[in-house]
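User: Hey, my collaborator sent me this sequence without any context and asked if I could get a structure. I don't really work with proteins. Can you help?
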Amino acid sequence: MDHQNESLMELIVRLKAKCIDNEIKIMEESNLSPSELHGIEQLNPKEVVSSKHFSKKMHLSPSRVSRVVEKMVQNGFLIRHDDPIDRRRCKILLSEKGETVKRKIEMMRRKCERKVRRTLTKREIEHFTLSIKKTIKSL
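Assistant: No problem. I've predicted the 3D structure and written it out in structure-token form, which is a compact way to encode the shape of the chain:
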């Protein structure tokens, strides 16, 4: 393929594929499902959130988030504190295992970013950052 004639969307798709490859490595190394990876990404260490707030952060329905949370609790990534009156209302936070995986995810992403930054000048990084922000805003 002639990479010089690629459209912006083709380039975005290629970049997304590279990012997905990195996410797959993280999921395989940590034995995570895509939903679990996304859930861990949405929480900060020691942050306690309601299931409703977590649902919004995950962009999933409350019933779907309930199943994701249950699986993450069973796999040791989350701690859940159920409301004694209404089980649908609970507070969740990363467990120690979840925090360890969160640090690993962040470390792998920083490594990926360092690779990208090594190939670009400071000016190119500034232009790239601005262009990405504009693209995100336009979509």
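In plain terms: The first strand starts at residue 49 and ends at 50. You can pass these tokens on to your collaborator as they are.
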